[in-house]
Amino acid sequence: MSGDEPNISRRKADHLALAASGEVDFRGVSTLLEDVRLVHQALPELSADEIDLATTIAGRRILAPVVVSGMTGGTAPARDLNRDLARAAEKLGLAFGLGSQRAMALHPELTPTFQVRDAAPSVFLLGNIGVVTARELGVERVRELVHAVDANALCVHLNPAMELVQDEGDRDFRGGLEVLRRLVDGLDVPVIAKETGCGLSREAARALKEVGIRTVDVSGAGGTSWVGIEARRAAAESPGRTLGEELWDWGVPTAVSVALCAAEGLEIIATGGLRSGHDVARALALGAKAGGLAAPVLRAHRKGGYVGVVQFLEGVVASVRAVTLLTACRSSRDLAHAPRVVTGELRQWLFDLGVGGSR
Fold first, then answer.
1. Does residue 210 lie in a domain region?
2. Would 358 be classed as within a structural domain?
3. For position 359, what pLDDT does the model report?
4. Which CATH number is 281's domain given?
5. Would residue 179 count as lying in a domain?
6. Distance between CA atoms of 164 and 230, rounded to whole angstroms?
7. What is the dihedral of CA 305, 226, 60, 177, to 10 degrees?
8. What is the 3-state secondary structure (H, E, C) of the chain?
9. Residue 359: inside a domain, yes or no?
10. Model's pTM, two decimal places?
């Protein structure tokens, strides 16, 4: 075991424990999904059994617009968690994302903590690497990481705020767009640009589109604050702790980010504070193709293991189905055109940023 491996494994364990605790949620900022009000239809003229929840993400069809978002890897407990989550996602026909594969890039002996194919042979699997790490590794090494886990697509995460708070984090974020361009051109799987809790602006969406990105995971503000997680991990009285406390609520709320990216014509996975099928449905109404959940899935696993995760995700899918029917939509894809009202702070964000917020 090399000197850095205990630090990586400890950091991953800290991330899981803090995310599960709920103590690092955004303090004064919400996803603003609560400002999306879908209009109830008392005469839907539909049967629940005929509702079509299937959607396509990055060219892959999934049976419901739900993603189990990337959380972890790099520790022994993470191996069992990843396998349970992947099995649950496969059982329900959903997508599943891995946590950052930087740990296995630096320490190949940790690779088994990311490998889930033997447990979930057909799950739509999203790999994960940071854009700065990808810059350092190069396209060929990133391709090897994708193949090592047999991923169907690669999430490249963008996390400057989180890194600035980490005592050991990156400080140089130059060249990110060029890295993404090279990955889009050089990999044999789709590349998905993914934030880590601070959301994507319209400017970022436009820049991503220009380098060939077609699918984004907005990971907006309002759920778990990854800045907050790193603030909690930073040494007391350290600059990182101080900065993290100050920027705990930094970011673009999830609902805003979805609307901004939709306005740019990107395919969207909405993550960042989604807690229910109703949240997923509201994100779809704003233009997302799917909604991703992480912290509530983790908590379901801690409470009930694999069975608890399956039961929780079945409830999420049932809720999406119910909202789809109650808005008289035949498919979850039709929620993007369902009558809605946008209220409150979300309406103000969209008005100020020049994005239509109601119809």
1. yes
2. no
3. 46
4. 3.20.20.70
5. yes
6. 9
7. -160
8. CCCCHHHHHHHHHHHHHHHHHCCCECCCCCCCHHHEEECCCCCCCCCHHHCECCEEECCEEECCCEEECCCCCCCHHHHHHHHHHHHHHHHHCCEEECCCCHHHHHCHHHHHHCCCCCCCCCCEEEEEEEHHHHHHHCHHHHHHHHHHHCCCEEEEEECHHHHHHCCCCCCCCCCHHHHHHHHHHHCCCCEEEEECCCCCCHHHHHHHHHCCCCEEECCCECCECHHHHHHHHCCCCCHHHHHHHHCCCCCCEHHHHHHHHHHCCCEEEECCCCCCHHHHHHHHHCCCCEEEECHHHHHHHHHHHHHHHHHHHHHHHHHHHHHHHHCCCCEHHHHHHCCEEECHHHHHHHHHCCCCCCC
9. no
10. 0.94
Distance of CA 268 to the CA centre of its chain: 10
User: What is the domain range of residue 277?
Assistant: 5-352
Give the Cα separation of 72 and 79 in Å (integer). 9
Q: What are phi and psi of 335, to 5 degrees?
A: -60, -25
- Say how far apart CA 152 and CA 124 lie, in whole Å: 6
Q: Give how many domains the chain has, as a whole number.
A: 1
Task: Report phi then psi at 32, rounded to 5.
Answer: 65, 10
Q: Which residues contact 93 (CB under 8 A, 6 or more apart)?
A: 62, 63, 64
Q: Per residue of the chain (359 residues), give pLDDT as tens.
A: 344 545 666 666 777 777 777 888 999 999 999 999 999 999 999 999 999 999 999 999 999 999 999 877 778 888 999 999 999 999 999 999 999 999 999 999 999 999 999 999 999 999 999 999 999 999 999 999 999 999 999 999 999 999 999 888 889 999 999 999 999 999 999 999 999 999 999 999 999 999 999 999 999 999 999 999 999 888 888 999 999 999 999 999 999 999 999 999 999 999 999 999 999 999 999 999 999 999 999 999 999 999 999 999 999 999 999 999 999 999 999 999 999 999 999 999 999 999 974 44
Closest residue by Cα to residue 157 from 141, 133, 178, 140: 133
